[in-house]
Design a protein that fits this description.
The two termini are 18 Å apart. The chain has helices at 7-10, 17-26, 43-50, 72-77, 89-102, 104-118, 127-142, 150-165, 170-188, 193-205, 212-240, 243-249, 255-265, 297-300, 335-351; strands spanning 30-32, 35-40, 55-56, 272-276, 280-282, 285-287, 292-295, 364-365, 374-376. Helix content is 50%, strand content 8%. The protein has one domain: Cytochrome p450, CATH 1.10.630.10. The chain has 15 helices and nine strands. It is of the alpha+beta class. The mean pLDDT is 97. The chain has a five-stranded mixed β-sheet with strand order 1-2-7-4-3. A two-stranded antiparallel ribbon has the order 5-6. The structure holds protoporphyrin IX containing FE (HEM). Residues 81-82, 93, 96, 100, 135, 139, 218-219, 222-223, 226-227, 230, 268-269, 272, 324-326, 330, 332-334, 337-338 line the site of protoporphyrin IX containing FE (HEM).
């Protein structure tokens, strides 16, 4: 098997980890032939980049991807906390994080309820679709979206997410972004719990009200592929290491342990990016104005300086250091939610009696340059 030649191709490669070890071994911010961005792959450099005030989430001249300009998809993208630094966004982020925290017990109940419905039928072929539905169904319910519209929401989330990456998908993505925004707005009158808490926390912090709906929609779009990826990684680990089932049965570890180690070992989000607006030194390296840095979270997870025996899957790993959910100002506020959904779903899949052995051989991944999401055996 040929190794991948760059961090984007590594995302869907059968085994990107030896390539990542090579990137880590170079240390610091570096470049490789045929790939323009700078690369951060070892734990210390990834940490330095993600906590540097000079490393921004969007390029200076491109707050939104140009092909989304003037569309509802661009309006959504441009108002997300994920895509903005400074201004009112840190307040919106705090409001989002605390309202999600307050919803944890409801989220756990919805994760169990929806997992029982989505994964009742033991089918390997249905797994990837169901895994993508789960986060939208769970979070959509908490946002007050009517159950009979959730399937359509999944399609809209898919279309929007595609349109961000593929310029030819922009008209569908724009229509979907407009529908998602409209649906969340329509629900607001009924004051669903998550939306009401989010509004209240935003008001307390003095954040502009017009950022509420886009960031509520953003929960659906942010959670979508990454949560599906986490469930896939957890089930793959169980399929490939039959001893995990024994450990689970003997209560030597919990499903939560498995999901957390899967998040580290086979990170659903393999990389993220940062952009430098002016000439600056980061992690001891001069970067030119306009430079892009690819931050390889999945490589940092396996840095032996961070996690001893990094290639081993150890559900009871002590002091696990996980870069999967980012860190610093833009760290993911959905980590506990994602883990809770994945635990509920994985337990339901095992309870359904599904034979996972087809996943112990080669598998395929959804096309992507940053998320590693199981497509099927
Ligand atoms: C396994 C599942 C997930 C993974 C691996 C993941 C990973 C990440 C990462 C790496 C970031 C930071 C990106 C960066 O700094 O460049 C992030 C941000 C974010 N995630 Fe997640 N996420 C997951 C699930 C979720 C869920 C379930 C939600 C919502 C409930 C969510 C909401 C967000 C939001 C709103 C941000 C933006 C935060 C900010 O920019 O301040 N994520 N996520």
């Amino acid at each position: 098997m040929r190794p991948p030649t760059d961090p984007y191709l590594a995302v869907t490669h059968p085994d990107p980890y030896p390539f990542y070890a090579g990137l880590r071994a170079r240390g610091g911010l570096h470049r490789i032939e045929g790939f323009d961005p700078w690369i951060a792959a070892d734990g210390a450099t990834v940490r330095a980049v993600l906590t540097s005030e000079h490393c921004r989430v969007r390029p200076l001249a491109e707050p939104i991807p140009p092909h989304l300009g003037g569309t509802a998809a661009g309006a959504l993208f441009g108002r997300l906390v994920r895509m903005n630094d400074g201004g009112p966004f840190p307040t919106v982020k705090r409001a989002l994080a605390s309202s999600l925290e307050e919803m944890m017990s409801a989220l756990e109940a919805e994760s169990r309820r929806w997992s029982a419905r989505l994964f009742a039928e033991p089918s390997i072929a249905l797994l990837p679709t169901r895994a993508l539905q789960l986060p939208v169904f769970v979070l959509g319910t908490l946002l007050g979206l009517p159950e009979d519209g959730l399937d359509a929401c999944v399609q809209d989330v898919e279309a929007y997410v595609r349109s961000v990456v593929h310029s030819q998908a922009v008209s569908e993505g724009a229509a979907s972004a407009a529908r998602l925004t409209g649906r969340v707005e329509d629900c607001a009158q009924a004051r669903p719990a998550l939306l009401s808490r989010f509004s209240a926390r935003m008001q307390e912090g003095g954040a502009p009200a017009e950022l509420r709906t886009p960031n509520a929609v953003g929960l659906l779009t942010q959670a979508y592929e990454a949560t599906a990826g986490l469930l896939g990684a957890s089930l793959l680990a169980i399929a490939r290491m039959p001893s995990l089932r024994t450990q689970l049965a003997r209560r030597e570890c919990t499903m939560e342990d498995v999901v957390r180690e899967a998040a580290r070992h086979e990170s659903p989000v393999q990389n993220t990016r940062r952009f430098v607006h002016s000439r600056v030194s980061v992690a001891g390296q001069e970067l030119e104005a306009g430079a892009t840095v690819v931050v390889v979270l999945a490589a940092a997870n396996r840095d032996p300086q961070e996690n001893p025996r990094p290639d081993d899957f150890l559900p009871r790993r002590v002091d696990r250091r996980t870069f999967t959910f980012g860190l610093g100002t833009h760290a993911c506020p959905g980590q506990r939610l994602a883990e809770t959904m994945a635990v509920a779903a994985a337990e339901q899949v095992l309870a359904s009696g599904l034979d996972l052995s087809p996943l112990s051989g080669p598998v395929t991944w959804r096309a992507s340059t940053n998320t590693r999401i199981l497509r099927g055996p």
